[in-house]
Amino acid sequence: MKKAGSWGRLLLRKILTGLSLGAVALTFQACYGLPQVSLAGKVTSGGEPVPDIHVSVNEYNYTLTGSDGKYQLFVDNYTQTVQFIDAERDEFEEKTVTWNPGDGPLDVVLDRKL
């Protein structure tokens, strides 16, 4: 039996590495899902942008609004329940909104706490 040359072993190693990476990617997708659509918008109050609002679709997928009140998340392509929470200053009421991927940007107006 003839041994494979160094190029044969290198080719086999590359094939096995590619298959392994593919299996890891499929496992990750099956367990966690892959982001598919962009959920973006702007948070305002009284016509002014509100920075540092915690925007989340679950405990693992969240962001904060920027100084311009804008935010962006990547979410799975189905209806999402989105929470807007002022955890930093506690000046605004919490808001929960349902968003569908076909709805476009999700702009939200928060009410100040009394």
Could you characterize what this model shows?
The chain has one helix spanning 6-32, and strands at 37-45, 48-49, 54-56, 62-64, 70-75, 80-85, 95-99, 108-109. With 114 residues, the protein is an alpha+beta fold. It folds into two domains: 1-33; 37-109, Carboxypeptidase-like, regulatory domain (Immunoglobulin-like), CATH 2.60.40. The longest helix is centred in the first third of the chain and has 27 residues, at 6-32. The radius of gyration is 22 Å and the shape is elongated.
Give a brief outline of the structure.
This protein has 114 residues and is α+β, with helices and mostly antiparallel strands.
Question: Notable features of this structure?
Answer:
Immunoglobulin-like; 24% helix; 2 domains; alpha+beta
Q: State the CATH class of the largest domain.
A: Mainly Beta
Give the CATH architecture of the largest domain: Sandwich
Please state the CA-atom Rg, rounded to the nearest Å: 22 Å
Shape: elongated
CATH topology name of the largest domain, in short, is Immunoglobulin-like
Give the biggest sheet.
Answer: 4 strands, mixed
Overall pLDDT confidence: 85
Number of helices: 1
Number of domains: 2
Bin the strand percentage: 25-35%
Task: Specify the structural class.
Answer: alpha+beta
Low-confidence stretches: none
List the helices and strands in order: HEEEEEEEE
The CATH superfamily of the largest domain is Carboxypeptidase-like, regulatory domain
What separation lies between the terminal Cα atoms? 85 Å
Total strands: 8
Percent helix range? 10-25%
